[in-house]
Structure formats: C-alpha cells, structure tokens
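Technical annex, item 7. During the second reporting period the consortium partners agreed on a shared format for inverse folding records so that results from different sites could be compared directly. Each record opens with the tokenized structure and is followed by the designed sequence. A conforming record, contributed by the partner at site C, is shown below for reference.
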C-alpha cells in the first residue's frame, strides 16, 4: 500500500515538473529556424525569445505604399499593404494576414490570455492577435520582424 502511494506521488510530482517547470519556450524554439544569418541581436531576441520591440520605433508604422510585408527571417509573404491600418498602438497593425501565413498559440506570459502568432514557414514570433473595435481582428506585429517589398508598378 505504501509503495503504491509513493509511486502515485512520484507520478504526480513528475507530471507537475513536466507540465509547469519545463520551459515551454525551449520546446517551442526547437521548431524555429534561423534562415537569415544577417538578423540583428534585437531581431533574434524578438523572433526567437518572443520579446517585443518598443512601440513607435518601427519605420513601418509610416509605410503607405502598395506592396507586401514579408518575414524578415525567411522572406515568406505575410500581409498585404491593403490590410495595414494605423491602430494607434505604436506597432504595425493589420486587419488580416495572407492565408496560411501564421500558426498561433495561447500566451499567458503577462497573466492574461493572448493569441500569439508565428510564421508558418520558419516558426519565428511576430506578435499577437487582438479583438478590435474597428475590425474583427488586429494583428499587432513587431516591425523588426517584417520587411516591406513595394509593388513594381
């Protein structure tokens, strides 16, 4: 009886350790691939460690030309400039992404539930999706994770 109880407690303890103490970011980062060897340290911190750039620092906040926004790591096409809008938050914001551009996960890092999105091609972090009064969704993207390529018209 005591041995069964001890085994049960060991199982519970091991489950707790695996579920709560094993860093999820380490498991998730194994799926992220650095493709662009020229990324800055700040870009790597945001893309690989899910950090956030300071608001109002991205030149892409003021980008108004027609074209597409691509992943700064792998070059995948993520957003059309037609979906970009000024949300007043300090980060480039979009009403929708291109189909299949991102994979999402739930993020509780700030003590609240948020939807985090990552490039479907290379797995790097880009930002969070929020409910928005102006549209159904607001993709709030770190500008350092994007490269803008204008149309050739």
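Designed sequence (site C submission):
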């Amino acid at each position: 009886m005591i041995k069964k109880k001890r085994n049960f407690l060991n199982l519970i303890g091991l489950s707790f350790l695996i579920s709560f103490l094993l860093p999820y970011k380490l498991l998730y980062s194994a799926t992220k691939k650095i493709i662009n060897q020229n990324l800055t340290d700040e870009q790597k911190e945001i893309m690989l460690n899910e950090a956030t750039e300071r608001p109002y620092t991205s030149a892409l906040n003021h980008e108004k030309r027609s074209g597409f926004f691509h992943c700064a790591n792998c070059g995948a096409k993520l957003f059309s400039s037609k979906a970009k809008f000024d949300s007043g938050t300090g980060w480039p914001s979009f009403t929708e992404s291109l189909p299949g551009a991102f994979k999402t996960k739930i993020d509780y890092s700030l003590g609240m539930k948020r939807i985090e999105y990552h490039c479907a091609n290379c797995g790097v972090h880009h930002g969070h999706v929020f409910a928005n009064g102006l549209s159904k969704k607001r993709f709030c993207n770190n500008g350092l994770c994007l490269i803008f390529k204008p149309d050739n018209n």
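The CA atoms of residues 27 and 33 lie 13 Å apart. Residues 16-30 have pLDDT under 50 and may be disordered. All partners now use this format for quarterly exchanges.
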